[in-house]
UniProtKB/TrEMBL annotation:
One protein family per Pfam: DegT_DnrJ_EryC1
PANTHER family reported in the protein's UniProt record: 3-OXO-GLUCOSE-6-PHOSPHATE:GLUTAMATE AMINOTRANSFERASE, TRANSAMINASE
InterPro entries reported for this sequence: DegT/StrS_aminotransferase, PyrdxlP-dep_Trfase, PyrdxlP-dep_Trfase_major, PyrdxlP-dep_Trfase_small
Lineage per the UniProt record: unclassified sequences, metagenomes, ecological metagenomes
Protein name from the UniProt record: Unannotated protein
Species of origin: freshwater metagenome
The keyword Ligase is assigned to this record: no
Length: 359
């Protein structure tokens, strides 16, 4: 019968009537850009995240670019980030004309390793951009202790505990993320009012009052329709994130053996992905594929070895922990509401496949 890697529709299906009503309201209002739905969502998201303000925008990639622009990061500046993350993290740095500097990751959490960050800091380092990878909070306290501005790429971690405490944190509402829109959307959590004001201008052509243009900005906005959908989803996020944590616990109980991920009680992890590691990853993935079970393998090749970033001069071997993770990771079916029966089927296929593997 098949199990998808992520079942977005299973999460919003029970809300269909509410979503249709909200869409009808927007149609009636005739108001599609900015307006009360967008403002209300920004307030509700700030309250949820516990940051001073939020500024919405068109997607998570724009959120990163806008955040760096608002912090005056550009040519000649270095920004330290991981290479085991979605391409947009480093692309946004390069898009600003700044230089992505890759720091290796921790082999267990797969998040950026503060000791590796320390080795990469130079006089030109303008910011550090940790990623809360797969929904697991990066070690923010240690990263913030370097005293440089921190831009949290939180695209995979809406609702994770202890995040969004830095000057800016960026979010994506791409449909597979923990909090999603029914299309593209993005948000920046901000803890500095001057930066928030600048972001509000930058997302609208660098303008405050629509007649004068004070910066060379962007056109990057969250639609009113998407804001109204997000306002319906946001109150369900605690339940969905709890369901993800419970599902992660079940994967462990169902007997993944050596494949099991870190314990579920790890502070704040919201399991955007449930990621296991194996040196036999490709065989396990093939077995899942043959059984009609969705999976994902991430960031292979990692960012420092991507053709668009070859000008940075990295070589294979430069980030050994990252490169090993790219070869070994396997992300299993996970969403808010995946059933125990579905998970049991996944585990069954993996156990049979690993029994067949040479030991
Ligand atoms: C999804 C994602 C982005 C980009 O978000 P979009 O909304 O697709 O532009 C950036 N960084 C990370 C880590 C992501 O997972």
């Amino acid at each position: 019968m098949g199990i998808p890697h992520v079942d977005v529709k299973a999460q919003y299906a029970p809300l269909m009537d509410q979503l249709k009503a909200a869409f009808a309201d927007t149609l009636e209002s005739g108001r599609f850009i900015f307006g009360p739905e967008v403002e209300a969502f920004e307030r509700e998201a700030a309250a949820y995240l516990g940051c001073a303000e939020t500024v919405s925008c068109a997607n998570g990639t724009d959120a990163l670019v806008l955040a760096m622009d608002a912090l005056d990061i550009g040519p000649g500046d270095e920004v330290i980030c991981p290479a085991f993350t979605f391409y947009a993290t480093a692309e946004a740095i390069a898009r600003r004309g700044a230089t992505p500097v890759f720091a290796d990751i921790d082999p267990v959490s797969l998040n950026i390793d503060p000791a590796e960050v320390a080795r990469k800091i130079t006089a030109n380092t303008k910011a550090i951009m940790p990623v809360h990878l797969f929904g697991r909070p990066a070690p923010l306290a240690e990263i913030q202790a370097f005293g440089l501005p921190v831009i949290e790429d939180s695209a995979q971690a809406f609702g994770a505990a202890g995040i969004a405490t830095s000057v800016v944190s960026t979010f994506s509402f791409f449909p597979t993320k923990n909090l999603f829109a029914l299309g593209d959307g993005g948000l920046i959590g901000v803890n500095d009012p001057a930066v928030a004001e600048r972001l509000r201008m930058l997302r609208f052509h660098g303008s405050r009052a629509k007649k004068t243009f004070e910066y060379v900005g962007y056109n990057s906005r969250l639609d009113a329709v998407q804001a109204s959908m997000l306002r319906i989803f946001l109150p369900h996020l605690p339940t969905w994130n709890t369901q993800r944590r419970e599902a992660a616990g079940r994967y462990a109980e169902l007997g993944l053996g050596d494949l099991v991920e870190l314990p579920v009680d790890e502070a704040g992890h919201v399991y955007h992905m449930y990621c296991v590691r194996s040196s036999e990853r490709d065989q396990l993935a093939a077995a899942l594929g043959a059984a009609g079970i969705g999976f994902a393998v991430y960031y292979d090749p990692p960012l420092h070895l991507q053709p668009a970033l070859a000008y940075l001069g990295y070589k294979p071997g430069d980030l050994p922990v990252t490169e090993q993770a790219a070869l070994e990771n396997l992300c299993l079916p996970m969403w808010g509401g995946i059933s125990e029966a579905q998970q049991a089927e996944v585990v069954d296929v993996l156990r049979k496949a690993s029994a067949l593997l040479p030991t």
